[in-house]
Write a structure and sequence with these properties.
The protein has 297 residues and is of the alpha/beta class. The chain is built from ten helices and ten strands. It has a single domain, classed as 3-Layer(aba) Sandwich (Rossmann fold), CATH 3.40.50.620.
Length: 297
């Protein structure tokens, strides 16, 4: 595994990264760890941080959670260099990208439900169920209530993760043709972030290892929508609950607002996050100003 501190030559001058939480719950200690990596690496190696609210899931996004994101980050001391428009304001950009794919014969309507896809794959519960291409050859009229998918050819995608090293993925084997707009007209995470990263000139994506499996399909989508220079990726370790599961917003794990209300200082919470991430060896309060040294030392 490659040490982040050895990567100074990997970052282009004036590079841009992003911190992109979803307003579907309150921020927890896992988000603080991700922010430590994003801001710490950016400040250590000359990058700029864009804050983007990823509210593509309109069924779960809430205004109070969005306000909480800004409040919690400000309390912790994470100040972005730029704030991007939320995804709810980006529908025209996503529609234009999809229209170009459809015009090139690379996207098609899909009427399959998740239950039907689960039945075909033999897995009703896995959101990563592979789509078998059922609607590829069907003559659907492309009505507004019909989903859209983008064709994934069988080629392999290879990339160099800035922490984990060489990676190989075959999106067609992992997920099949990628869903880009669902039957309710909502844009999917995979498509929205790819268009956003292109339009917002994101050079390096720093995020948790839980999203590593998405990288190959996002690189493929980026190429298909005309991005000639794809972003680099760095996937950092996750911190976990006592039972080994990933910290979850829905489970209320170690919430930032709860720690604040309990009297913890922002420095103490940053120190907890740094200790959980293995960036420091002993429990201690940590300041924003100290973050670059955790990565560049």
């Amino acid at each position: 595994m490659r040490a982040v501190k050895q990567l100074s030559a990997a970052f282009p001058q004036g590079w841009r990264t992003r911190f992109a939480p979803a307003p579907t719950g309150w921020l927890h200690l896992g988000h603080a760890v991700s922010a430590l990596y994003v801001w710490g690496i950016a400040r250590a190696f000359g990058g700029r941080v864009l804050l983007r609210v990823e509210d593509h899931d309109r069924g779960r996004a809430r205004p109070e959670y969005e306000r909480g994101i800004f409040d919690d980050l400000a309390w912790l001391g994470f100040e972005p260099d730029e704030v991007a428009p939320p995804q709810r304001e980006r529908g025209a950009a996503y529609a234009a990208a999809l229209a170009a794919l459809e015009a090139a014969g690379l996207a098609y309507p899909c009427a399959c439900t998740r239950r039907e896809i689960g039945a075909l794959s033999g897995d009703f519960f896995n959101e990563e169920s592979r789509y078998p291409g059922t609607c590829r050859g069907r003559a659907l009229d492309g009505a507004a209530h019909v989903a859209r998918r983008v064709l994934m050819s069988d080629e392999m995608e290879s990339f160099d993760d800035l922490r984990l090293g060489a990676q190989w993925q075959v999106p067609s084997s992992q997920c099949g043709d990628v869903l880009v707009r669902d039957r309710r007209g909502q844009w999917t995470y995979q498509f929205a972030v790819t268009v956003d990263d292109r339009d917002q000139a994101i050079d390096v994506v720093i995020r948790g290892e839980d999203l590593l499996s998405s990288t190959g399909r996002q690189l493929r989508l980026a190429q298909m929508i005309g991005r000639t220079e794809p972003p680099r990726y760095l996937h950092h370790p996750l911190i976990r609950s006592a039972d080994g599961s990933k910290l979850s917003k829905s489970a209320g794990d170690t919430g930032i607002r709860e720690l604040h209300a309990a009297g913890r200082t922002s420095g103490e919470v940053l120190g907890m996050a740094a200790l959980a991430a293995g960036l420091v060896d002993t429990p201690r309060a940590t300041t924003i100003a100290e973050l670059p040294a955790l990565f560049a030392r």
